[in-house]
Amino acid sequence: MKRIDLFMFLSFQDILVSNLHLLVNRLNVGLAGNREE
Q1: What is the pTM of this model?
Q2: Burial degree of 7 (CB within 10 A; 0-12, 13-18, 19+)
Q3: Which residues contact 12 (CB under 8 A, 6 or more apart)?
């Protein structure tokens, strides 16, 4: 059970990290667009 819980936790953490990277990329693109304007 502990191994399964740990695996699920790591998978969930990977999803959160990937989503954070996408959000950061979008913010960076938005800031770059605002700066260009």
Answers
A1: 0.58
A2: exposed
A3: none
